[in-house]
Amino acid sequence: MDKILKMVAQRLALGVGTLFVVSLIIFGAVQLLPGDLAEAILGQAATEETVAAFRRELQLDLPAHERYLNWLFGILQGDLGRSLANQREISELIGKRLLNTLFLAGMAAAISVPLAVTLGVLAALYRNSFFDRMVNMATLTTISFPEFFVAYILVLILAVNIGMFPSISNVSSDLDFWDRVYRSFLPALTLTLVVVAHMMRMTRAAIINLLASPYIEMASLKGIKRARIITHHALPNALSPIINVIVINLAFLIVGVVIVEVVFVYPGLGQLMVDSVSKRDIPVVQACSLIFAATYVLLNLTADILSILSNPRLMHPR
Amino acid sequence: MTSSKKGDVLLVMRDLRIEGQADEKWHEIVRGIDLTLRRGEVLGLIGESGAGKSTIGIAGMGFTRPGCRFSSGTVTFDGIELTGAPEETKRRLRGSRIAYVAQSAAASFNPAHKLIKQFAEAPVQHGVLNAGQAAKDAVDIYRRLQMPEPDTIGFRYPHQVSGGQLQRAMVAMAMACKPDLIVFDEPTTALDVTTQIEVLAAIKDIVHQFNTAAIYITHDLAVVAQLADRIMVLRHGKLIEEGETRAMLAHPKEAYTGQLLAVRSYRRDEFPPSQDDPPLLEVRGISAGYGPLIKVLDDVSVKIGHKRTVAVVGESGSGKSTLARVITGLLPPYQGEILFKGQALPPSYKNRTKDQLRQVQMIYQMPDVALNPKQRVRDEIGRPLEFYLGMDAAARERRVKELLEMIELPAEFAERLPGELSGGQKQRICIARALAAEPELIICDEVTSALDQLVAEEILKLLQRLQDDLKVSYLFITHDLATVKAISDEIVVMLQGRVVQQGGKNAVLTPPHHEYTELLLSSVPEMDPDWLDDLLAKRAS
After folding, report:
1. How many angstroms away from the CA of B441 is the closest CA of chain A?
2. With an 8 Å Cβ cutoff, are A224 and B122 in contact?
3. What is the domain range of residue B249?
4. β-strands B213-218, B42-46: how paired?
5. ipTM value of the model?
6. Which one of A279, B90, B367, B470 is CB 3.0 to 4.6 Å from B62, fit for a cystine?
């Protein structure tokens, strides 16, 4: 256990280092964005003096490295700064939306992960059967279409034609849990369709990869049923690659949902970021990017820890 | 169980034929085998690789490996015909009434589960015992097999026990449902001789205690002689000879059986020690290891004279191969020095001159992986000619032909890819590649271990002839004492990174020995069927 704690500490330190580098890249990239907030807000007609005064007030006239350091120290003290567009605290602006995004991602994950692993195990069990081919084809089809296309098809069928679910997911904090689930269903389903193929195929491949192992032959020669061989002998040894793919997809569910959020007008972080980019609201863009990066780092750390927990060689050294 | 005729017939194979698929075609790999096994009887199946013995063994469970199929004939276990039986019928028999013990326990235990869970799986799944009873049984059988800490060893994972213990745990697992028949598929081949004895004794003891019938598959006649009531000699999927163990060992009917019996008899005399000074290679006080903590070699000193063969023997983990890595400069030692003809060699190969590199060449255990599968024999042998000797294309062509002649292969082989060669031929190519550099010392790292015994003997003879012709010296690393007896002038016995005994072959092999040398020597199975019993009785007293 000590070893694991030590490893977690090491990875966390590495993660902080990664985030520092990422913060540099984000800041640099944002500097490269064309356009200027002052001009965007004040409009073409503004005089040069007004623009200069506006910039001074928002400290946009400071050199880049000073602005970066100000930003960095602010973050270290838990202060993400203020939105340039409406002067509100960014933490307040982001807080609710982050929760919305996590709710949607969590819901999509709760559907897609068990579904993908089950389908993967079944496809490996009935390898090359009709079922296997159907599952492969269906999941490949859904992953092959762009997300917005899948989203609109679902809206057309489930919202417009059948009218089962709302086409706009306007969730707010005063909704109760099930109402929230109901309104978030279409975006969650869209995300599920997008990520399930990857995870399902990895599960299937990781299991099939092990089926030629001597211990699988041994299990057959012990008279163990095929389903049990797959679930008790192959799956535990295939966990590491499966966990890694699941985590990559979870990260995608959190940071890659921009398009789906836009289609369903879902008030999540992705929407906020897109809006902020178009408004040149740089501190908000930076804060969102940093949160996304932190998500990736944390999820990958989780994957590493789970991989170790699933490997008896590392858990129980000689 | 000395009388093999007791008991009812348990397993019968009639004109069994099994085909394997290769290059989109079906080839017969078992060609009409008849076999009868009675309850409580132990039958030995013996032959070289490719004889089909393993395929026949698992066919006794109605099982064929992927890419193989029954083409005709029958396998009848206790009245149930298995080749045409539904999968469910066979599944119910496997593990409960017929069990299997595989060659590599390390690969055949599931790394994700504890030993006792894997022991209990078959009896619980077959509904023979509940989990609690199975756990109790496991401890009982672990104790009978004399495993250390029988009460707790089952709660370890496979990687937490040693190779010999793991192999015994697998025998225990096969015993879990008290089957009528166990198929042992080379269960001791991957073990050191000293460990092999423990496992052989355990197997012999347990099949007696439970009166279990067994098929024992091996390529080593001396091993099977200790266990089997009856032996079938197989070659290319056909029966060569069948008979009672003692009768067959005393009077083999077929020439091939005679060859197998004689395989360990090759032996040459020790050459008188050369008086050259300085010796060709001298290793002085070497300590080496991997990382700062793991010391694999501890103060090792070895001398190799001109045209001498020095054999380094020891179990796996004794540091033999590490010594080779130090001499070749792949692993610079912590301390000590390496002198070649009295001149110190730089510790790392990176600092050695091309000529220093040329003088020490290596031949490896696995010819399969030591040859680049995409290079033809000509390029394989030609590379050192170009690199060390700077030969042009025409000179190389001539020299490759000469070298092929030296290793007794026809000149056309220059065109072949490694995939088109047999194991023995590949090892010959590796020898030619080492010779191409015109070295004075060749390090042979377990060069015969991966080969069948008859092929291995040919390689040893070839190496001997080359030494006579070319005056090259060998450092021969091996765990096989028969090889040592055959080819060496001097013997270095290693244990846990130290040299425990060294000297001329005759001196080391004649008593009094160091006690570890004695243990190694006495652990090599002999053809005498009473050898194991006698040895165990002697050690117990």
Report:
1. 39
2. yes
3. 9-265
4. parallel
5. 0.79
6. B90
